[in-house]
Amino acid sequence: MIAHAPPATDGPLFAFAGGGTGGHLYPAIAVTEAIRRRRPDARFVFFGTRRRIDRQILNRVECEFISQELPPLSWVPRRVLNAFLAFRKACQACHERFILDRPVVVVGTGGMASVPPIPTALFNPDALPGRANRHLARVAGCVFAQFEETIAHFPRGVQVVVSGCPVRPEFQTATRSGGIERFGLDPNRKTLLITGASQGARTVNQAVVANADFLTAQRDWQVLHLTGETDFELVSAGYRGRGVPVKIVAYTEQMAEAMAAADLIVSRAGASTLAEIIAVGRASILMPYPFHKDRHQLVNARCLVRVGGARIINDAIDPALNAPALRAVLDELMGADDIRENMGRAARSVGGQGEGAAELMADRLLEMSGISGDVEAAGGCVPRLETVKAS
How far does the chain reach from its first CA to its final CA, in angstroms? Predict the structure, then answer.
C-alpha cells in the first residue's frame, strides 16, 4: 500500500527497505538527505512495515512509502504458512513496483521488511548482525557497519564498510540552551534524560519511577522523561505528588535537542540511540533490551563501555531488582561532574567516523549506482572509506 508519493521526476530512484522502529528509519533518512544534497533530483521509496511508527517518522520525508505485512517468523506450522504467504505477497509487490520504476540501488536497513526487495547494499548498525542481514549479506554488494566489532560476524568474503551510524544533522548542531528552551526546562538545574527510544521501554520507565523519592532529593537536578505513548499515563501517575521537577513527554521528533539538554542519559542500547549519544557526547547509563534471544543491545552497549563512555545495568525485568541497581549508578554519576564529563568525551571518541557516516554512505551508494553526484553541494566532503573483507 502506498502511503504518499512525491510527483514523478526523471531523477534516479533510491530504495530503502526496513522499518518497525526508529532505529531502522532515522539513519536511512539521514542518508537520503545526504544523497539529495548531491543529487537534488533524487527520488526515494521506502518499503516498511504496517507499524504506526513507520508512518509517524516517514510523514516528514519527501518519499514514497510502501507498507508490507510481514508477521514474525515462527516454527508453529500454521504460522509458518501464513508467514510464507505474506512474504511471497510482499516479494511480488516489490517486483511489480520495480518493473514500473527500477531503482539504481536498494538499501536494506534491518529487519524482515528489508528482505523482499533484495537489497544491493545493507546497513548494519548493531554490533551483532541479525538473521536477515546475515542472510542478505551474501547477495549484497557491501555492508555498512557502525562498529569495528561487526566485521567478525559476517561470512568470509563479505565486503564491510565501517562507516559509523548516520544521524540527522541536528545532532551535530543542537545546543544545551536550545534544548532547555525547547522543553521548558530550568537552565539552572542539571538534566537527567530518560528515554526508551521511539516506542518507549516499560522496564526502564518502571525502574526510574521507582526511584522518584531519590530523584526528589537531588535538588540541583531535573528530569526529562520520554515515556513512549503506551506508558505516558503510567509514568505520569508514578511521579504525581512526589515533588520531582519533571517534564514528561510521550514522543518527540526533537531528540537532538533532548539529548543536548541532558547532563546524563538513561536509555536502552539500540544502535541508532547509541549513535545519537555518541554524536552529542553525553554520559549514559544503558539498560539493554532483555527480551532478544541474541541480546544484541548488550553487545552494542559494550562497545561504548569499552571506551569508558557508559555504564551498563542488566535489565532484570523485575522493578524490585532494577530500581536499586539503577539508583546505585545514579547516585555515583549525578554527584560527579568530572566523571560525567570524561564519559561524554569518551563517548564522542567512538564517533570518529560516525559524524560523516551519512556522507560516506551517500558517496558509496552513488558510486555503486553508477551515477554522479554533486560533491561540492555537500561542502566538498569526501570521507575516507575504510573497507574490510570479513574473514
Answer: 40
Q: Give, in degrees to the nearest 5, the angle at Cα 246 between 244 and 249.
A: 145
Residue 1 one-letter amino acid: M
Cα–Cα distances in angstroms (integers) from residue 344 to residues 100, 314, 386, in the given order: 49, 21, 25
Would you call 327 exposed, middle or buried from its count of C-beta atoms within 10 A (0-12, 13-18, 19+)?
A: middle
As given in the structure block, the three cell numbers for residue 272 are 541508532
CA distance 81 to 83: 5
Beta partners for residue 13, in sequence order = 43
Domain count, the chain: 2
Task: Check whether residue 36 and residue 185 sit in a common domain.
Answer: no
* The model's pTM: 0.83
3-state helix, strand, coil in the chain (%, to 5): 45, 15, 40
Domain containing residue 182: CATH number? 3.40.50.2000
Q: What is the pLDDT of residues 207-254, one digit of tens each?
A: 999 999 999 999 999 999 999 999 999 999 999 999 999 999 999 989
Report yes or no: 134 and 302 within 8 Å, Cβ to Cβ.
Answer: no
Whether residue 3 is contained in a domain is answered as: no
Gap between the Cα atoms of 72 and 242, Å rounded: 41
CB atoms under 10 Å from CB of 382, counted, come to: 12
